[in-house]
Amino acid sequence: MTQHAEAVDHEHLPDDGCETVPHEDHVDHVHDGEHHPEARLHTGHDGAHTEGDGCETVQHEDHLDHLHDGHRHYQHEDHVHEH
Question: Where is composition skewed (Basic and acidic residues) in this entry (predicted)?
Fold first, then answer.
């Protein structure tokens, strides 16, 4: 059984360039030979992005990104994707 390594100094987000492998109900990123769980939300970010939530928004292709703590987030159904 593959164990997660505790990554305290960084997060792994979708399309960050790392090799990915399925792990139970989520995706792990292989980083320096260790398996780290993929984050769908930036650490410390609670809740969904909605119209009028107070975040600055910018157009990104066919949707709006919300700017949050220096990161661009896109709300898609129940997931927040970070660009």
Answer: 1-68
